[in-house]
Amino acid sequence: MFLTYTFFNNYLRERGLDNQIYAAMKNGDYSDVVMAALHALEESDSLPTIEKDNKCEKRSDKYREEGNIAFKLGNVNRALEFYNTALMYAPKNSRAMKLAYSNRSAILFKMEHFRECVIDIENCCKLGCPTDIESKLIKRKNEATQRSETKIISDLFFSCYFKDFFKFDVKSNTSIPCASSDIEVIKGDDFKVVAAKDIKVGTPLALEDSFESCNNEKNIPFSCHYCHKMSLNLIPCEGCCLVLFCSEECKEICLKEYHSIECQIMEVIQSIAFDPKAKLMIKGTLKFVQMCGSWKKVISSSHCTGADRIRISSEQDMYDVNNKFSVLNFNDNRLFVHGSMYLDSFVCAIFIYYLERISGYLPSSFDEGKLAKKALGRIMMYFRLYASHTPFALRVSDTKNKKSFFNPISNYGWYPLIGKLKESCSPNLIVINLNKKMLLIALKPIKKGSELTVSHIGHYLLCDGEPHVRNSISFDLFGNVCNCIICTGGWKSQKKQFSLTEKQLNLYKERFLHEDVLINIMRIPNVFKKICNVLACLSDVSFSEEYVHVFNNSFFRLISAYQESVCANVVFDRIR
């Protein structure tokens, strides 16, 4: 971005510009830090020149040809990536766009995704199918249509059944619409979310959408920019060359929420936002400004964040994802932020510099424009330093190998309720990722008045890596490392020391079904209830081999099947 990081810092130091930034950091107003960074960039002539990447038919054709080569070599995932990139670069209604859809339909047919093949052919025909490939596409469509009919019936039955299995149709909390009335909020010096009554294992407690979320860089060629669904029929944004959507609906919602502005400077964001937290900061700021509806509201809101706002906030202000103030209510009691503040001030400054060049975005008057830029800097820096980013891994079907897996490449989001629940290494709730939504389910019996807890790192029984992996995630999310028996991995060596009572052992043997829990789909509700009863009975020996067995082989298998069916994330092969 700059000539070199060391050269740039030396330049600032020689001219005393770094002292201006350090002095601003002591003032307590984040906007002063960002404005000082912007001044330093302007004075040093270090603002990067980032050109917009325009749609280009030749470039699209090049990516499509690369896809053809990968297809011939049998690298189907790589071919899909190239065809999707070809779509992103193809000008609207161009021959390049039609050929990209046509070629992608060929790989879909080969991989026996016949419905998806038909959709791509229909998209090509809507644009005006080139006459030289029309007969070939008609023949492919007719064959794909015939071969897809049987599969449609079986897939629809399985999908519809699982959608109703965890249907979140409970009575809603009056202040937090995404949550059940089984929870309540207690406000003292801080907020605390507790059980409003005794809660059984397996009870769904919340279904929360993200306020904002973002794809990991490696997931972008296979995922919807808005809902993160990994689809085989992604469609391109018409304005930029870096975004795909799974549907017209997602595209329209995304444009309305933030992408209409983001789209104009996607190349800037790609150049300066090197990690998910930076992307969330930018997207979240754009959405927050849109929700405010006026710069006057943005400016006034920017002066009250973190602990100051929490003291005066209602439950809805704190936890309702549809309330814009929910993302200004993350605790700002984190230590050791000055290093991040210094570095991130330049990211914020460059973003504001390019926002200023979008016609009509900032206020036209000089004074209000200056206040608006300071408000943006204040909000962005607060988001960057304190907004809790929750990682989520998607359940994905690998159709080449007929398997499903959890994508090891996590996406991230802001969740005003789930993201603020108390962190625990042995939580009483488990979070089920449903693309950009999260379902919260009781994992232990919870007594009335008990605080609800989650593990944002991931439940310890689902983390296969070495302890240092869990510790690094903890440090990234919370700035600290836990030394408990779970985080050090000590519980694994002590599994056999946790012995069951006679009652627990009898229940485990009597009710735990040593059979494939997915063989008879109609029996799943009864099987799941039995599994939850066993987990409840074993909750005080959750490190025992029996508990681990029930959790991994039955409880989580059902959860995974539900995720696989409802989310419908599909790739040709496991993502590397």
UniProtKB/TrEMBL annotation:
Domain annotation SET: ranges: 168-457
GO cellular component: cytoplasm; nucleus
A Pfam family hit: SET
GO biological process entries: methylation
Keyword Metal-binding set for record: yes
GO molecular function, one term: zinc ion binding
Residue windows of the TPR repeats: 60-93
Record-linked SMART domains: TPR
Record-linked Gene3D superfamilies: SET domain (2.170.270.10), Tetratricopeptide repeat domain (1.25.40.10)
Keywords: Metal-binding, Methyltransferase, S-adenosyl-L-methionine, TPR repeat, Transferase, Zinc, Zinc-finger
Protein name as annotated: SET domain-containing protein
